[in-house]
Write a structure and sequence with these properties.
- The complex is a heterodimer of chains A (470) and B (60).
- With 470 residues, chain A is α+β, with helices and mostly antiparallel strands.
- The longest helix of chain A is centred in the last third of the chain and has 21 residues.
- The radius of gyration of chain A is 21 Å and the shape is globular.
- Helix content of chain B is 55%, strand content 0%.
- Classes of the chains: A alpha+beta (470), B mainly alpha (60).
- Chains A and B meet through helix 10, helix 11, helix 12 and helix 13 of A and helix 1 and helix 2 of B.
């Protein structure tokens, strides 16, 4: 079944109704059938997946209690270290590197939770982009319209979940690389608080902005996966030594009314009608809303861009000196420019960052969460360079992050919930909370789901004929 | 407004030891000019003198 949830898989395996091996084979079959069209995966880890699944089935046969993600197939962006695979990070320059000698900690967390890794996914080179139009590894297509982008940079991970190849996937988010593809592909995606989850073994892009997180087709699946990923890691300088704070137990109850701040000003000005209509629909799920205008958001985005350009270029400086032509042309010029920025610009951007963080935190005295459109528009066509936004031609690859970047700068937890639209492409809303309050963004997402506003149907083209005929 | 031109690019490339092929210089210069506009936005903002840069983002 293409639309089975992670929770349903885990329950079925734990109850002995179906084996982990059968779910894994189903996922591998769907990948074999649809990946040539989608180009979501760059490697399939069939042998490993079947071995993990059979080991799990053996545990059940011995009467052992199975972990929470037992038998759930998933994929990871190809910048995560996977033992035995070269960590490509979307770049042809890394194809000749030695394979990883161990799994990234998050993959170990997933394995401990019983999830089955079935492959790695396509991305923008070095996570530098919002479209997953990769010169060397091809473009990942949007399952809702194959002529359109899935978003990026974690586009392969988003497309694999949106098409129902797997119920869960992992991506990374520096300036919006989980939130943008979640919005364009019509699924749930979480960028946790900066420092919440270990980034070790995930190829770095911008050390002071990078986060890692999951995609899913339901809020509960997203929470189930996020809870399994939590845990401190002293080997990641940014990872906070915090206890696991599970969100899943609170998802099924509505609890106290959530105070929602609706972001206007910059966030309205940089979203077209389709995205604003999705936001309006989402607001119908909440009892208490107020309009909020954050100060100097445009400068926050500019600061994020400067920090990204400078920090993002530095790991590649030697390679740029040696062989700039080996890079994807789309990223090479950005990296070269980033390596040349004056220190005064970066220092001022980092000063602004502290100021902006203080301003935004004050808003959370009166709001539990903030909400806006997640992207300025739904998915654009593959190869489309520009898009009209309120009468101005904007560069697609840059503008897709307009609404997500300001919150990257200050490391706030942000969850994208999908808003499907009849006969039109889905587009998401982003829900933002104060640091470490992932519980609140999950509660808001669950409320959207209970209200029937947020859901992530697998497109008919990716469902077996017998499912679509029901 | 910060002026970023070919002479500035040449000086930076010399200082960093990066050799950008002639055919790529226009692309790099365009990226630099885009970032310079953003830098102008940030540099002109009157931050309080005591505002220190975030060298390591760490939430309480």
């Amino acid at each position: 079944m293409s639309d089975i949830t992670a929770m349903q898989v885990a329950r079925s395996v734990a109850a002995g109704e179906n084996s982990a091996e059968s779910f894994t084979k189903d996922a591998l079959q769907r990948i074999g059938q649809h990946n040539p069209t989608l180009n979501a995966l760059t490697a399939i880890t069939e042998d490993r997946a079947l071995a993990e699944a059979r080991a799990l089935d053996a545990c059940r046969e011995r009467g052992e209690t199975l972990p929470p993600l037992a038998g759930v197939p998933y994929v990871v962006k190809n910048l995560y270290d996977v033992e035995g695979l070269v960590t490509l990070a979307g770049s042809a320059t890394r194809q000749d590197c030695d394979p990883a000698t161990e799994d990234a900690p998050l993959i170990r967390h997933m394995k401990k939770a019983g999830a089955i890794l079935v492959g790695t996914t396509n991305m923008d080179e070095f996570a530098c982009g919002f479209t997953t139009e990769n010169t060397h590894f091809g473009t990942t297509r949007n399952p809702h319209d194959l002529d359109r982008i899935a978003g990026g940079s974690s586009g392969g991970s988003a497309a694999a979940v949106a098409a129902g190849l797997v119920p869960l996937s992992l991506g990374t988010d520096t300036n919006g690389s989980i939130r943008v593809p979640a919005s364009l592909s019509g699924i749930f995606g979480l960028k946790p608080t900066f420092g919440r989850l270990s980034r070790r073994g995930a190829y770095p892009f911008v050390a002071s902005l990078d986060t890692v997180g999951p995609f899913a087709r339901t809020a509960s699946d997203l929470g189930l996966c996020y809870d399994a990923l939590q845990g401190p890691d002293k080997s990641d300088f940014a990872c906070a030594q915090r206890p696991i704070e599970p969100v899943l137990p609170d998802l099924s109850s509505s609890g106290e009314a959530i105070r929602v701040g609706v972001l206007t000003g910059y966030f309205d000005e940089n979203a077209e009608d389709a995205a604003l209509a999705a936001l309006d629909a989402a607001l119908g799920a909440f009892e208490i809303t107020r309009r909020v205008v954050l100060p100097e958001v445009e400068r926050a985005r500019a600061s994020a861009s400067l920090v990204t350009a400078s920090e993002g270029a530095m790991p590649h400086l030697e390679a740029l000196r040696k062989d700039p032509q080996a890079f994807d042309p789309l990223t090479r010029d950005r990296f070269l420019a980033g390596a040349l920025l004056p220190a005064a610009w970066i220092n001022q951007a980092q000063r602004f960052r502290r100021w902006f963080l203080g301003q935004v935190l004050e808003v959370f005295d009166e709001c539990d969460v903030l909400i806006s459109a997640a992207t300025p528009w739904p998915a654009t066509r593959i190869g489309q360079k520009e898009h009209d936004l309120k009468g101005t031609q904007q560069i697609v690859a840059r503008t897709l992050g307009f609404l997500t970047q300001p919150f990257s700068l200050i490391g706030l937890p942000t969850l994208v919930a999908p808003v499907p639209r009849d006969g039109a492409l889905p587009v998401g809303v982003q829900i933002v909370a104060a640091p470490w309050r992932e519980d609140l963004v999950f509660r808001a997402a669950a409320q959207l789901e209970r209200s029937g506003i947020s859901f992530a149907p697998v497109p008919d083209a990716f469902r077996p004929r017998e499912e679509t005929e029901k | 407004v910060t002026k970023i031109d070919n002479n500035y690019l040449e000086a930076l490339l010399g200082a960093t030891g990066i050799d950008v092929p002639e055919e790529n210089r226009a692309g790099v210069l365009a990226q630099l000019q885009r970032l310079a506009k953003m830098a102008d936005q940030v540099m002109e903002f009157p931050l309080p003198e005591a505002e220190e840069p975030i060298t390591k983002l760490r939430h309480e």
